[in-house]
Amino acid sequence: MISAVGLRKAFGDFEAVRGIDVEVRRGEAFGFLGPNGAGKSSTMRMIAAVSPVTSGSLRILGRDPAEDGPAIRARLGVCPQEDTLDTELTVRDNLVVYGRYFGIPRSEVARRADELLEFVQLAERGKAKVESLSGGMKRRLTIARSLINRPDLLLLDEPTTGLDPQARHVLWDRLFRLKQQGVTLVLTTHYMDEAEQLCDRLVVMDKGLIVAEGSPLELIRGHSTREVAELRFGVGEHEALAAKVEDLGERVEVLPDRLLVYSDDGEEVIARVHERGLSPVAVLVRRSTLEDVFLRLTGRTLVD
């Protein structure tokens, strides 16, 4: 569905994407993770055939976006990070009008609009104005709109940003159903749990390069331990205490408010900490997550 080799994107002297190789297979959910400025959005815009490639090879649905941009875009669905719905139109008319841009006959686009409203659980709000919808409803409507042309490839940029947990889970369910129907999903997200839930494979980008690739489980196994023991001591004590526990795990990470000890047996780490006469204010043992991998690969420094 997508094949990129040595893909680069430059804006003047700044190179946002610095030569990446990506392959997305039919029917899978593929994710791009990375901090702000990693090159995710620039990559997505090239895949959407709306931003020209600076150098390298890119094929979308087997076609060259430089030569077949309109044909590619006709088979894509795009859910942008910001909702761009027509607030003056009704919920249903947002779908009907958008479908007409693709040249879909009126009777057919009306039928598809009704089907999609049922799919995203908005059938009862079809006659309502968009401005009356909640944030979660607007996101579901945006996804419905992106499906009006029955795309082979659906691009989702931060699909659940700003939504409450209930709305996020509803969207996850809808996206999982689309994948079961054979739609190929490509998404960016800052939510590590979302990537674990939705993605079959993903890449982690940093500074325009791919620094890791694989399934969520493969990345966790390759870049972290099975468990993490979190130790919280008094304010300002963590740096000094790190040396006293560094031999208890594969590695120790010092945060301002706690120590993270990476080990395959977190409970054993806690027991040995107490044996050494150390008394944490609070302890927690949890499994390693994609967030541990992400922060190890891209760092904990804030990127604006």
TrEMBL record:
| Cellular component terms (Gene Ontology) | plasma membrane
One GO biological process from the UniProt record?
response to antibiotic
Q: Which PROSITE patterns match?
A: ABC_TRANSPORTER_1, ABC_TRANSPORTER_2
Keyword Translocase recorded: yes
MF-aspect GO terms: ATP binding; ATP hydrolysis activity
| Main location group | membrane
Q: Where is the ABC transporter domain?
A: 2-232
The protein's topology relative to the membrane is: Peripheral membrane protein
Q: Which UniProt keywords apply?
A: Antibiotic resistance, ATP-binding, Cell membrane, Membrane, Nucleotide-binding, Translocase, Transport
Q: Keyword Secreted on this protein?
A: no
Which compartment or compartments is the protein found in?
A: Cell membrane
For this chain, the family text in UniProt reads:
Belongs to the ABC transporter superfamily.
Q: What is this protein called?
A: ABC transporter ATP-binding protein
Q: Which organism is it from?
A: Nocardioides donggukensis
